[in-house]
Design goal:
6-stranded mixed β-sheet, alpha/beta, 186 residues, 4 helices
Length: 186
């Protein structure tokens, strides 16, 4: 098996939130649950689950394992919900309180390290690069750098990190790929 070295540059990463007038953070679900009189109402599990009923899984976690060599605790893409081979993808990372990195980052205030958010996007880019014209099947891809990275909200246990990456250019001769990406949380 030959080893192809492909470098991905994630050019931007961001997460978006909606600040509340009280200074806290309001998710879309919480905002919709507040009635005109200021009281909250329960939507129920079925209604909340129905919000994502139209989102289909293109590649399961087992399929992602075929793309990437990463395994626990460093496998950071749980599934892919949109995919265009060699071009772009949308992937999901379900962030749970059981993640190893929360033990020390930070005790009492768990926050997913930004570098791991970047790594998650780089892994998703690796899945996209597997379908690049000129890339060898089964090649291992390496993350080469990140430019213009910004964080707008901490990623915490219970969040769903929704990532999108797109390949901008690929140099077959040198095996170098440039990609851009963004990540969102509720």
């Amino acid at each position: 098996m030959k080893l192809a070295l492909l470098l991905a540059s994630i050019t931007s990463a961001s997460a978006f939130l909606s600040p509340s007038p009280s200074g806290g953070v309001v998710t879309r679900l919480a905002a919709e649950a507040v009635e005109a009189n200021g009281e909250t109402t329960m939507m129920g599990g079925a209604a909340i689950s129905a919000l994502t009923k139209d989102v289909k899984t293109v590649y399961t976690t087992e399929d992602v394992d075929k793309f990437l060599p990463h395994r626990y605790p460093f496998a950071l893409v749980d599934k892919i919900v949109e995919y265009e081979a060699g071009k772009k993808a949308v992937g999901i990372k379900q962030v749970t309180k059981n993640e190893e990195f929360f033990n020390g980052h930070f005790p009492g205030k768990p926050i997913m390290p930004g570098v791991l958010q970047l790594e998650a996007m780089a892994q998703l880019a690796g899945c996209v690069m597997d379908g690049l014209d000129g890339a060898e099947p089964g090649a291992i891809f390496f993350f080469g750098g990140a430019d213009g990275v910004k964080w707008k909200k901490p990623v915490v246990p219970g969040d769903t990190l929704v990532m999108e990456v797109e390949v901008l250019k690929f140099n077959k001769k040198f095996g170098i790929c440039k990609a851009t990406g963004k990540a969102y949380v509720d």
